[in-house]
Structures are given as C-alpha cells and as structure tokens.
Design goal:
heterodimer, A: mainly alpha, B: 2 domains, three-stranded antiparallel β-sheet, 25 helices, 6 strands
Amino acid sequence: MNLTTSIIGIVAYLILAPIAGGLLAGIDRRISARMQGRYGPPILQPFYDFFKLLEKEPITVNKVQDFYVNCFLIFIIITGAIFFAGGDLLLFIFTLTLASIFLVVAAFSSNSPYAQVGAERELLQMMAYEPMVLLTAIGFYMVNGSFNVSDVVTSDVMGIVYLPGIFLGFVFILTIKLRKSPFDLSLSHHGHQELVKGLSTEFSGKTLAIIELAHWYENIFLLGVVYLFIAHSAVWSPIIAVLVCLVVYFLEVLIDNNYARMKWQFAINSSWVVALTLGFVNMLVLYFIG
Amino acid sequence: MSTILFLIVFPFIVALALLVLKTDAARDIIVKVSSILIAAGSIYLAVQYFDSGGEFFEFGNETVSTFMLGIEVVLAVLIFYLGIKYKKYLASVLVAIQTPLMVWFELGTGHGITVLNNMYVDRLSIIMALIIGVIGTLICWYSIGYMKDFQKHHHEEPDRRPWFFFLMFLFLAAMFGIVFSNNLVWLYFFWEITTLCSFFLIGYTKTQEAINNSFRALIMNLLGGIGFALAIVVLGNFYGTLELNQMLALGAGISMVLPACLLAFAGITKAAQMPFNSWLLGAMVAPTPTSALLHSSTMVKAGVFLIVKLSPILGWNLAGIMVMMVGGITFLMTSFAAISQSNAKRVLAYSTVANLGLIVACAGIGSYAAVWAAIMLIIFHAVTKSLLFLCVGTAEHNIGSRDIEDMDGLFGRMPRLATFMIVGIAGMFLAPFGMLISKWAAMKAFVDSGNFLLVMIILFGSAATLFYWTKWMGKMVAIMAKRENIQSNVHKEEWLVLTSLTALTVLICLIFPLMSTFVIVPYLQTIYSSVATLALSSSNMYIMSAMLALIVLLPLLFYGKSNKRIVPLYMAGVNLDDLTYRGSMQKDVTVSLRNWYMEDYFGEKRMNIIGDIATVVVLIVTFALLLGGVL
C-alpha cells in the first residue's frame, strides 16, 4: 500500500467510521429490542443521543478527567488510522492499549468508588483479552510474513483457512471488547445495580459524548480485524469479509441478549483458556505445517 | 586505555577518600565532583572509542594478577570469619570451596596460560559504561540528600555513611572492571567485588533482617561465583584459554556448552533469576539508593551483561535452552507475583526480576534480533527503573510509607514527584516508551526463533505487566480535595537527579533510532555475519516518535484546563466530604478504595514456588545431562 492509498484510508476512516459506528449501534439497539420483544428506538437514535449529550450543562468532578478522556479519543482515532492506513498490527495493538489506559486513568482520577471499581475491572478485562489480541497479530504474521495490514489484505491466501482457532479466539474476546454481556463488567449500556455506570459513572454531557464517539471508532476497527481474516487478493473477498463482519456482530448481539453477566473470574479464566488452547494450538499447527 | 584505567581506579580512590573523611561538607563536595568526573569520563570514553569496532589491550603484568589474587584471599578470609560470627556457615563453606579452587588453579594451570589481551572496549562496553557512569553517579548524587534524611530517621544508630559511600563508589569501580575485562580471571575478581559490595550494602542497617537478607544475597551469589570459578577451571584445563573473546570465537567451531552453562549459571544468580530471585527482594531492607543501584546500573546488570556477552554461543543448544527457559519462567512468574504486591518497592523489585528474565531469555535465543532487544531492554530499564526507585524513596521519606495504597492522590500532595513517577511507570510498559519498543522487538524475535513457549510467556507476562502498573498509576492520579502540598521538603539534590532521570527517560525514547543505528547495530554486525531486518521499520519508528511528541505536548497544552463547573461525585447518598456520605438510613458511611491484588490468582508465595520448582528442574536437568556426558 503506497502513501496515497494510506491517506485515502485514513481520511475515509476519519469521516466514515463514526457514521458507520453510530449506525451499527442503532441497528444493535433495534435488533436487541426485537430479541427482547420490544419495538426499539429509531436506527438514528445513537446520533440523537450524541447531539443531546453535547448540549448538556458542562459539569465535571475535577479539572483533569476531561483531559484524559480527550486523549482517549485522540489515541483511539490514531489506532484506527494506523489500521486503515495499512500499518503494523502490533503498533495498532500497542496504540489501542495506550488509548484504553487513558480511559482507565480518567476513571481513576475521579476518585469515585463506582468509577474505580469499573476501572479495576476494565484493567482486568484488558489483562484477559490482551494475549489473544496479540496472538491474532502473530497469527497473521506467521501466515503472511508481515505484520502490515496492507500485506494481509493483498496476500494470496485467506487468513481464516490457516487461522481458524485464532479467528474463534478473537471472536470470543471481541465480546469483551464490544462490552457485551456476559463480559460487560466494567461499563455497559445498561446501568448495573452494584456498579451504577462503572467506568463512566462520573462522566457527563460532552465527556460522555466523546466516549460514545470513541467507541464508534473503536468498534469499526475491531470489526476491521475480523475483516482481515477473510480479505485477500481475490476480488470477491472484500464483500464476503464485510458480510462476515456483520454476521459476527449479529452473533455478538445475540450473545449479549442471551447471557446474564458473569463474574470477573469467568472473564479472565475463559479468555486465557481460549488463548492457551485455540490460539496456542493454532499457532503450533501453523508452525509445523509452515 | 588511560580512560578505562581512570574509570576503574578513580572511583576506587574516591571510595577510599569517602571512607576516611567523615564530615558532611567534605563528603558532599567529593561525591558531587567525582560524580561529574566519572560521568564525564564515561562520556569521553564513548566519544573516544565510538568509531572503533572494538579494541583490545594487552596491559599484561604479573603484579596485577598477583595483587588481585591476594585481595581475593583476604576477602575470602573475611567472609569465612563473618560466616562463622553470624552463624551463617553455608557462606563460610562456599567461600572455602571457591577461593582455594581459584588459588589452586591460578598457581597451577592458570599460571601457564598466556593471556594476550587482558582488557578490551567495544560498543557494548561503552553502553554499559555510560549506564554505570551516568546513572550510577546520579544515584550517588541523590544519596547525598537521601542519606541525610535517612540518618535523621535513624538518629539512634551510629553514622555509617562513610562506609555507605565507600561501598557505592567501590561498586562503580568494580562494575567498570567487569565491562572492560577480557581476562576471565580479572572479570571474576571484579565479579566477586560486586558480590561483596552488595552484601555489605544490604546489611547496612545491621538489623537482624538486614543481616539475614545480606547473607542470603551473599550465599546465592557465592554459588554463582563457584559456577564462575568452575567455568574458568574448565576453560583453562580443557580449552587452554582464559580470554572471553577467544572463548566466544572458539564457540563457533567446537562445543562450548559446559563453560557456557557454568558462566550462564553465574549470570543467572547475579541477575536474580528464579530460583535465586529472593536475594534481590530481600535487598529491599537497604536504603533506597542501594536498591536503585542494584536494580538499575550495577549488580543485576552485571549478570545480564555476562549472559548477553555469551549469547553468540547460546541458541538452540543445552546452554541456550537452559538460559531461555530460566529467563522465560522468571519473567512470567514474577510478572504475576507483582500483581499481588502493595509495597511499591516490592512491585519494582518483581518488575526488575521480570525484565531481567526477558533480557536473559532474549540472550538465550541468541539471534541478532533477540540480542538487539536485550541490549535495548538493558538501556531503557536502567534509566526507568532508577527513576522509579528514587521516586519511591523520596515519596517514602515525605509521606512516611512505601505502600501504594498510601500514595492515594499523590498528585495533589506532591505533583512534581507524581508526574515523574507516572513518566517512569508509563516508560515501563506503554507505547511509545522504551520498554515497550524492546518488548515488541523481543516478541518478534521469539516468534522468528520458533520458540512458541516463550511467545506465550511474553504475551501473558505483558498482560500482567499492564495490570499492575496501571493500577498503581490509577492510585496516584486520583484527585482528592483538600490535600496539602508537601513537596517543598525534598532536597534539591534529589530534585536534580529525579528531573535528569525523567528527562533521560523521555530523551532515550526520542533518540533510540539513533542509538540503534549507530551503536547497537554496528556492535551486532561485528558478532553476527548476517544482518537481519529489525522488528521496527523506519516508518514505525517515526510513528512512535510522533506519538511520543504528542504525549509530551498534550499535557503541557491542555492538562487541567477546564472551565466546567465542578460538582461532587456520586456516592449513593449525600456527600459529606471526599469519601464520606450520608446514606439512606441517615447513617454516615466512609468509603475506602483499594486496588485489586488477586491473591487467589497471583499470590506471591504460589508464584515463587511454581517458578522455583520449574527453574530448579531446568537447571538440574541441564547439569545432569552435561555431567552424564550426553553432549
């Protein structure tokens, strides 16, 4: 991928990702409602919510948390930009970690009991999914000999053929990343009895809108990773890849609506077991057939 | 050559002077002036030999060797006596095996072997010299103020500061000796001096705990010393050489597994790898500058330096596998153990052991890219860890605790110190800082080497690392109302050093592409014939540098600038103050916030037992195979 396509990728991402992410959230809410036997809000509801949040009275619990939240957004955008510019998958993951740390630190800085519990749980979730996320990047490297997204999408082989275990593993931890039940431990769209709004308890108005926006950006590049498993040099592959992304997202919504929240122990145990079995075995097989 | 001699001899003379002069004023001046001279000397050395691919110096004379042997015997007698006096007979036994062995060898076989080059300098020794000369002296500088406070806190104790500063500077001299010695017998001499210095430094306070821990450190390092001595005997008797460079050169042709294993074993003990990690944790009883010195620029770095030196003859042989397994297991188990700790110094200690484990594992793999990562880790770790230790030391003297739980809202009480600490913590695990860059390279090297056990180890270890650093950071950034600013009590020497180290932490991340291109890659090219591509392409390095600039600029521009109305936080009732509220039953409830330690998962004891058993098995199997003559 040359400079021009990289720049096109970044610009397209900057403009289209929030729109796509917001729509995805709207569709998510509609489908969830239908699964629960409700009619559900309009597809554009997330955007209405977003603009309404922007108009709220500007209040905060301290002078610094907005700074951290803004950094969170900036680095989430940079993470996505690295991805859609065809950049290095490991750099992409490390930048994502940095961004997430800013969100955690923002929650810690409020010194609120609920936000702090949310922050600790968020950290736990990060610890749970990090090995599998890195394994995904390593899997692509072993198949294509390169960590670059641009090399993965122009490769002659379809990733999922060699990485079925890693694909399943990634989809598993995607539930955590998308903040879906049973792993919506630190923060979820529904208030929880013991946690109030967890991580985001002390964020309001514009700050909350920024977090929402960041999540839209985030969800798009997370699905982008799913896309990588299918996309390769064949002309038809991007279409199939997008379809697979949608199916995976639907699956996540289905899981979200069918499971009660689990304890944090289950989150870390299961994610690590998945990484150790599906991920590790896939990697070993790949090494011995390669 | 004269610069090298200066770096070894001058700190030694300073040490003697500090032992004799007892007034504060004289000590302050001597420490400051000589610190500047030593740092300048190491920088001058770097400039002087920058372009040379490595130079060897004959510098042979019988007197030096005899003199060293004499000192060794005197020190051995001293340790033997101390072991008896404090009823630590194992130390006496070990020294009674080791020193006679060396004396017998040197007067016998060793005498007949001609050593062509006793000393050398190459780019790796330049890097090490800079670490010792700059970071080491910064720590000495910091100690001036710190030890005054320390004496004030322990005023009932006799003032042993001359002894303390004597040991600190002697340590630096010995470290310089280690990185410049090509003659293994000389290297061994300096190696033993560092063992003794750390023994006395750990026992500095002379409490029962300090004495026990100092002997533990001594015994473990003497074990390593026996390994070293045996390696010399084997090399001298079977290979007919006592020179490090010749040993490495021979390794390309014939099997060097036995001496490599023995030397690596010595390195493992000194680098506090499992099952020997407990001595470094025990070293916490000493004043904080000691810990900073042991953890960042001296002692443990001598251990990894030796193993990195050996890396060309490691790899997929018995010695290499032993080294990578011990390093890998140590990295994983100590990263986990760090989660369960609330004592800041113990968290730092476990993190040190873990990072050394990673360095050791990289050196064990021995590939070009892995050694690149190992050297980068040594540099970044030295700077960042010394900063963190000294920050904790200053915090401890001002808030009266080294417990992370007591660092609640440190940002309000000691804003500058908290900022430095956060830079240090971020430097240890976050992009775009140094340690992460090295970990990135290490990860890629592990994948390329096909050692997937190590790949899994680094993935899980890194996940744990992220957890324990961030929760610490979270404690400090919490904003609490009505906190008094108490940072005006900190000595100005301490500020100077902390500021320099913080600046250095950021600076080396900015200039690391230059260090890589001009120092480390040329060094590796002299060792490895094929130059593989590095983990970080130039475009990635640019992105990292840009991110670093952003991370530095954003807080400067926007931090804490908010016009929003400040409201109290939500606490399920009526807020009374920071962490108290009136609940629904008209009852006042006080909230306390504590970090997660996950004792059931990562309990320190369990992690240590698992790690110790695993590494002991690795070591025993390796040496059993060697002795069984399988190879």
